[in-house]
Structure formats: structure tokens, C-alpha cells
Design a protein that fits this description.
- Helix 19 runs parallel beside helix 21, helix 20 packs antiparallel against helix 21 and helix 21 packs antiparallel against helix 22.
- The strands form two sheets. The protein has a five-stranded mixed beta sheet with strand order 1-5-6-3-2, with helices on both faces. Strands 4-8-7 form a three-stranded mixed beta sheet, covered by helices on one side.
- It has three domains: about 220 residues, Serine Threonine Protein Phosphatase 5, Tetratricopeptide repeat (Alpha Horseshoe), CATH 1.25.40; about 150 residues, 2-Layer Sandwich (Phosphorylase Kinase, domain 1); about 200 residues, Transferase(Phosphotransferase), domain 1, CATH 1.10.510.
- The protein is elongated and about 95 Å long.
- With about 575 residues, the protein is mainly alpha-helical.
- It contains 22 helices and eight strands.
Length: about 575
């Protein structure tokens, strides 16, 4: 089944008529589902572009065949000898090795048998990460303190399409690059399904960068303190407490007993809605070992006394996270303990949770938080005690996290092979895209019954051919404004639309900074040729420019699917 064109699925955007897709979509009649669009950049009658918003996820209605996770290139600089010894073995990309022995479901079982493959830890080149983050663009900052944070986190996309999170340390944090690489490689060896796994690092010049998996569904802080749809349900809060305890238990087993600055910002939600603990906290913020950047009211007492962090400090910080989960707001531990001692537990509890929990369960979690927050480190429980206390409180282990949270499950990004054009679009390499479109010419239009030379030879057709020629010359010479003018005129003259003309005008709009019009033309190209990979790749490019990364990834996957289908038909 051919995916419905973007325009037919989102007619409500107001840009295109809500013409339903019929079984004739794969025939030449599909070209007439939408009228040719007459767009002139200097025309006062320019139709309004579609209104796109980040919150409006544009999804294909058709079912997709699974294609696995994009893998980043294995190329990269060799790590120093001491760091190399800390690298995980090559089988760390194996799901069993990467994610722990059990599965990824709410109760430890993976319902569909799928496992997340994590790339082998490697050193990235600075140029690669600069390209992935569009020059460390402020628009791609995802850390909640924005540019004010001492160490900023960016969203990025690697050449192969994989989304990543890049933590950029301040220049003076790690003066010695070898020490930084060794520390990062040690953290990169710790892999688990409850962790946001570290997949690489970079230490070129003054830059010190960590690269981790990207989590698309925000932080615990956002869901607890700044929610806009629904408060985090009680059952989900219990799952957070349990999963984070599992993550800490695994770190303990890997002899990583110190976790720096554990708080609600360090817990992130993956594409399934499952909470995971950031691996960034396994590494110090600087070589001097400063471990706490949050309010001192939330730091372990021993850190305030000695400036040192011990294994029991992590338990104290876990207790502060429990307070966040119970109250839905920031409460200093000293104030919370006063409420607990005074048996004013109801004043501590988040009022939005009323009716969702049994009083006995709430009391048990409050009691656990109280134990974790003991002043003397020796009086705090160990991690095994946390697991045995929180685990039995969960009542809905079989319900998926994304269902509990009321979020739309993000489709997995699966491994696929992209053509040169697909790779260029995924990597936002506009020069390469232009070169490929030039080289391909109008070959893909052949057989679509819209080759200009087959039309009746009249003076009007001669004018049309001249218009096409001048448009192609402008496109070749990268005079994209002129190309838009000629191609717009050509679209109005042709009795049968050309997918290639729409594709070229789409790219010209992109180069002219008009991403919404570029997306519209790429959609028109797909209407003309519903299985044309180029149309999907150009939509991906335009969607990326509009900041709609999830939808862009969908387009890349669909383009690759049709490309593979075409290649298989040639072989057959």
C-alpha cells in the first residue's frame, strides 16, 4: 500500500484541498488529485503556505515494514591506549550485551521481542558533531537551562540519520584531553536498557564533548513540574522510582558507584515512554570532581561538610527524587522531613494524584524517602533495599509506559540503506543534493507520460521548452530565485505536471529560505509519482529545516523503502 500524500493526510493545515487518496493513486490520474500550483515569488496573489507547528506530528497512515536503527559511521580517531582498554567489546552493539539480560517491557519483558541496539562507543570528529548540531545552533539546545547552563546539551543528527544528544563542557572543565577521553571511555563501557547510553566523545582543541542516545520525550522535571497535558500518574511515578533504582544497581555492579548530581533533570523518557537515567551523571562535570550544580539545599550533608561524594550520597539524592515524585514540586529535604515527622503526609503529597494510590503504598514510599534522607550516610539503605521496596508497589506492570503517560509512541528508527541522495538529505548536505538533482536530470519522469518532447509541437510548446531550458540553466548556475520564476511559469504551462520540475523548484525554495513552500512542492512531486524516493527525501529535507525531526525521519524511512523496492524489482 502506498502512503497517502502528506497533503491528503493533513488537509486541515489549510494549504491544499482535502482530496481523498483513492486506489488510483499509483496511476497517472494521481497527478490530478491536486491542481498544478502556480507560484511566483513576486506575485501578490501568492497562496499562503501551510501552517506547520512542532506539536503537529505528520504521520503516514500506511503500515511500515521494520527497517532497524540507523548506525553511525564506525570511522573515527583512535582513542588513547588507556582509554582503549576501557572500551566495550565489539559485541556491545548486540542487544543482549547492550541492554542487560532482560527485555525492555514495563516488567522487564520485551513484549514484541525487539531489542534496542546501541552503537559501539567511539571517538567522534569535531567536524562531524559540528555538522550534526548545525554548528552548535542555539535552536538545538535541549538542556532545560538553555545557554545559561555551564554545560549545554544539544540535539543532533548524524550522517546516517541517528539522533543524538551532545553535551558540551565549558572550555576549562577538562584541560587534559587524554584524561577526558579515558573518563568518557570508562563511562561508555557501562551499558543498560535503563540508562541513556553514552556512545562517544570528542576532545579536539578546546572542545570536550560527550555523545549519548537521544531521548525524545523530555525529562522527569518537565513531566513533574512543567506539564501541560496531564500530571504524571502515580503508577508512572512508581515505575520511574523502580527503573532508576535498576539503573543505579547496574552501575553498582559495573563498579560505577558514584552518580553525580542525581535529580529530576537526569531522568529522561525514551521513544517508548520508559524512564532512563542519563549516563552524563556517571562522569564528573570537571576534572576537579565538582559533583553538584543544583541548589545546595538538595545536596548530601557529607558533600557540604567535606566536598566529597561517596556511594551513600547517591542514595540521598535518590531520596530527593522520591520527594519530587511524591510532591510534584521541589521541596527541600529538611522541610519534607519535618512534614514526615509531624505525620503531615497529606501536605507532602501531590494533590493531582488524589484517588490514584492506596494510603498504605504512599506511606511506604514516604518511609523509603525518609530512610534515604538520613543525615548520617551509614544510616541510609543500600540499592538492593531500594529495589525490594519499590518493585512490589507497582500494580500495572503490564501497561506500557507511553500508555500510562498519554504520549504518542514514536516509531523506532530502524537500520536502512540510504542512496546518495537519501544520505545527502539526511545529512543536510545541500551541495550534494543539488549535484545529484542536476546529474539525474529528467530521467525519472520518463515513462510518466509527461516528457515534453512527446507533446504536440506548437509555438506554445516551443515557448514551454524555452522556459524549461532557462529554468534548468538558472538551476545549474545556482541562481535559485530565477529558477523559481521559470519553473513556476513552466508549471502553469504544462498540461501534465512534472515531478522533476516540482522537485527542482522545491530545492530552489529551500535554498531561498522558503522551507514551507519547499515542502509543498515536494508533496506535489509525490502526488505525481507516488513511489518516487526523491519526493520523500526532499520532504525530509524540508521537514528538518522546519524543525520537525520525527516527521523528517519518517520520510527518510519511506524513501528508503521505495528505493529498496525499486532495486528489488530490477533484480527480479
Amino acid at each position: 500500500r502506498i502512503p497517502a500524500p502528506l497533503c491528503c493526510r493533513r488537509a486541515s493545515l489549510g494549504a491544499l484541498p482535502p482530496t481523498p487518496v483513492t486506489s488510483l493513486c499509483h496511476t497517472r490520474l494521481s497527478c490530478f488529485l491536486l491542481p498544478p500550483v502556480h507560484i511566483h515569488t513576486r506575485s501578490p496573489s501568492l497562496p499562503p503556505p501551510p501552517s506547520f507547528h512542532r506539536s503537529r506530528s505528520i504521520r503516514w497512515q500506511a503500515s511500515r515494514s521494520p527497517m532497524g536503527c540507523f548506525q553511525s559511521k564506525p570511522a573515527g580517531k583512535p582513542l588513547p591506549p588507556d582509554a582503549d582498554a576501557a572500551l566495550p567489546p565489539d559485541d556491545s552493539a548486540d542487544p543482549e550485551a547492550a541492554n542487560g539480560a532482560d527485555g525492555a517491557g514495563a516488567d522487564g519483558d520485551d513484549k514484541d521481542g525487539a531489542k534496542r541496539a546501541v552503537p559501539v562507543f567511539r571517538e567522534f570528529g569535531l567536524a562531524e558533531l559540528r555538522a550534526a548540531t548545525k554548528g552548535f545552533s542555539a535552536d538545538l539546545i535541549v538542556s532545560e537551562s538553555g545557554e545559561k547552563a555551564p554545560n549545554v546539551v544539544y540535539r543532533g543528527r548524524l550522517d546516517g540519520g541517528r539522533l543524538i544528544a551532545v553535551k558540551r563542557f565549558s572550555r576549562l572543565s577538562w584541560p587534559d584531553p587524554q584524561q577526558f577521553l579515558a573518563e568518557a571511555a570508562g563511562v561508555g563501557k557501562v551499558r543498560h536498557k535503563r540508562l541513556v547510553n553514552l556512545i562517544g566523545c570528542c576532545a579536539e582543541g578546546d572542545e570536550r564533548l560527550l555523545v549519548a542516545e537521544y531521548m525524545p520525550n523530555d525529562t522527569l522535571s518537565k513531566h513533574l513540574f512543567h506539564w501541560d497535558k496531564q500530571p504524571l500518574p502515580w503508577e508512572m511515578r512508581l515505575r520511574v522510582a523502580h527503573y532508576i533504582a535498576q539503573a543505579l544497581d547496574h552501575c553498582n555492579a559495573e563498579n560505577r558507584k558514584i552518580y553525580h548530581d542525581l535529580n529530576a533533570y537526569r531522568v529522561l523518557f525514551d521513544e517508548e515512554g520508559d524512564p532512563r537515567l542519563s549516563s552524563f551523571g556517571l562522569m564528573k562535570n570537571s576534572r576537579d570532581g565538582k559533583s553538584y550544580s543544583t541548589n545546595l539545599a538538595y545536596t548530601p550533608p557529607e558533600f557540604l561538610r567535606t566536598g566529597r561524594v561517596i556511594a551513600e550520597s547517591v542514595i540521598y539524592s535518590y531520596g530527593t527524587v522520591l520527594l519530587d515524585l511524591l510532591s510534584g514540586k521541589h521541596i527541600p529535604p529538611s522541610h519534607a522531613l519535618d512534614l514526615i515527622r509531624g505525620k503531615n503526609i497529606l501536605l507532602l503529597m501531590d494533590s493531582s494524584l488524589e484517588g490514584q494510590y492506596a494510603n498504605e503504598d504512599a506511606s511506604k514510599l514516604v518511609d523509603l524517602a525518609s530512610k534515604c534522607l538520613q543525615f548520617e550516610a551509614r544510616d541510609r539503605p543500600n540499592i538492593k533495599y531500594l529495589l525490594s521496596s519499590v518493585g512490589p508497589l507497582q500494580k500495572q506492570k503490564e501497561v506500557a509506559s507511553h500508555v500510562l503517560m498519554g504520549i504518542t509512541k514514536t516509531a523506532s528508527v530502524l537500520p536502512t540503506i540510504l542512496s546518495p541522495l537519501g544520505k545527502a538529505c539526511a545529512g543536510m548536505d545541500l551541495t550534494a543534493v543539488h549535484d545529484i538533482l542536476l546529474k539525474t536530470g529528467y530521467k525519472d519522469d520518463e515513462g510518466a507520460e509527461n516528457e515534453l518532447s512527446f507533446q504536440e509541437w506548437t509555438q506554445q510548446v516551443q515557448e514551454m521548452l524555452n522556459t524549461k531550458k532557462f529554468g534548468d540553466i538558472a538551476f545549474r548556475d545556482k541562481d535559485f530565485k530565477t529558477a523559481i520564476d521559470y519553473y513556476s511559469k513552466l508549471v502553469g504551462m504544462m498540461s501534465v505536471p512534472s515531478a522533476t520540475v516540482f522537485a527542482r523548484r522545491s530545492f530552489s525554495y529551500l535554498m531561498n529560505g522558503q522551507s514551507e513552500l519547499a515542502l509543498r512542492d515536494a508533496m506535489q512531486a509525490q502526488v505525481c509519482m507516488p513511489e518516487w524516493p526523491t519526493a520523500f527525501y526532499l520532504q525530509a529535507l524540508a521537514l528538518s529545516k522546519l524543525g520537525m525531526e520525527t516527521d523528517a525521519q519518517d520520510m527518510l524511512n519511506d524513501g528508503a523503502t521505495f528505493e529498496a523496492k525499486k532495486q528489488n524489482s530490477w533484480r527480479g
